[in-house]
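JOB MANIFEST
job_type = single_chain_structure
chain_count = 1
residues = 88
[input]
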Amino acid sequence: MTRTDNKLSDLQVFLRNFVIELILYGTLVVGYFLVVLRLLNDYLTNLSRTNLTLYAFLALFLIVAQGVLLDGLTSFLLSKVKLDRLKK
């Protein structure tokens, strides 16, 4: 295999993995968003009216927790799928 073919193959693997990760992560984000809206909507709305500072800290915590949770879950699911990895 020539160097150009190898680069093209690496690009195809990268693009396929990227699209799979994007679809998976997007699905998880939308699902998480809908769950949080249903479970915490009334509480967060009330909190934003009564204690804006606590609401701000709780919102930041939820953002960070969402990122950590979804990244861990996505990594776990992708390891189970066993996608081809690019050679370093």
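[summary]
The chain has two helices and no strands.
The chain has a mean pLDDT of 83.
exit_status = 0
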